[in-house]
Specification:
- It is a single chain.
- The chain is of the alpha/beta class and 286 residues long.
- The chain has a single domain, classed as Vaccinia Virus protein VP39 (Rossmann fold, 3-Layer(aba) Sandwich).
- 40% of the residues lie in helices and 22% in strands.
- It is built from 12 helices and 8 strands.
- It has helices at 2-7, 12-18, 24-36, 54-57, 73-81, 119-129, 153-167, 175-179, 183-188, 208-217, 219-227, 229-247, and strands at 44-48, 65-70, 88-92, 105-111, 130-141, 146-148, 194-205, 268-279.
- The two termini are 34 Å apart.
- The chain binds S-adenosylmethionine.
- Residues 6, 9-10, 19, 49-51, 54-55, 70-72, 75, 94-95, 111-113, 116-117 line the site of S-adenosylmethionine (SAM).
Length: 286
């Protein structure tokens, strides 16, 4: 029953289509940290709350084996359907009950997922499965996006923010931890050797329909949709129209791929990732 309820938190199809992988910048901070902490050998990485696998797949090149875990069967099914790597596999399970032997995991990640977990139970599980000198990285992107298009970037960003703020009414209490930039999550972590890194900027080309799809992938939009389908759809239709009117274009596919000359990129989403790394080899409950 619990799994069924969590399956409705996100729409796995729109999640797979519109969410993005952890940025190069974020990855480079994480892998530098692992080097600094000498996490070697790098046999097994576990990506907890992996969703449809975008975050899991970026670990494939760095570890012998990568396992993505998620409580949602629909998300794991979407992850399995996506193109992947032979050393990546997926498993349905709660973050608080990981199916790994004591001291068997080198690295644990949770990208934009830790706010959903029961943190004390999750951290206890992390402590159990992590081998000595293993590390854990928890990250989230913030919701203060800025949009860029010719001379109307500011107005587009305002429209984005207004729609996001309307959706806030449907945000689960836990999503508020993301709005608070994971400060409370960070403080709740009992490890002593921990580091918080903020202000990681990321720029991703995106069309207007991509931005609308991103809204659809938010759990707070899914909650709105369940509560009042017509109003939810209408909000995004109006938002899309406001974007197009502001840009003075007709097509919601208005975009060019990256890399292109900056002035030819019509719309770029810029986001800030908040994340922190915790480690290394700390045993919490001795
Ligand atoms: C915002 S998505 C992040 C997915 C992916 N890590 C990414 O970066 O795109 C959060 C995921 O956490 C999962 N989740 C929520 N509570 C969970 C729990 N207690 N244990 C495991 N996964 C959970 C949800 O099913 C969802 O797929």
């Amino acid at each position: 029953m619990a799994v069924h309820l969590l399956d409705t938190q996100y729409n796995a199809d729109s999640y797979q289509k519109y969410r993005f992988s952890p940025s190069e910048n974020l990855q480079s901070v994480i892998f530098s940290y692992l080097e600094e902490k000498k996490v070697n050998p790098i046999r097994l990485a576990v990506d907890v709350g992996c969703g449809s696998g975008q975050s899991t797949r970026v670990l494939a090149a760095h570890f012998e084996k990568v396992v993505g875990t998620d409580i949602s069967e629909a998300q794991i099914e979407a992850a399995k359907q996506a193109a992947s790597f032979p050393n990546v596999s997926y498993h349905v399970c709660p973050a608080e009950e990981l199916p790994f032997e004591d001291g068997s995991v080198d690295f644990i990640t949770a990208f934009t997922a830790a706010h959903w977990f029961d943190m004390p139970r999750f951290m206890k599980e992390v402590d159990r499965v992590l081998r000595p000198h293993g590390c854990v990285a928890l990250s989230t992107y913030t919701t203060d996006f800025s949009m860029h298009y010719k001379d109307c970037s500011e107005r587009l960003t305002e429209i984005f923010t207004e729609t996001r703020d309307l959706l806030l009414e449907y945000a689960d209490e836990k999503v508020k931890l993301v709005f608070a930039e994971y400060k409370e999550v960070f403080e709740s972590v009992p490890f002593q050797d921990k580091r918080r890194v903020t202000q990681i900027l990321d720029k991703i080309p995106m069309s207007v329909s991509g931005v609308i799809g991103l809204f659809q992938s938010f759990s707070m939009y899914q909650a709105f949709l369940r509560n009042d389908p017509e109003a939810a759809k209408s909000l995004l239709q109006k938002t899309e129209q406001r974007f197009l009117d502001t840009m003075g274009v007709c097509s919601n596919e208005t975009q060019v791929g990256f890399p292109q000359a900056a002035e030819r990129i019509p719309l770029i989403r810029q986001l800030r990732q908040e994340f922190f790394l915790l480690g290394q080899g700390i045993h919490l409950f001795q």
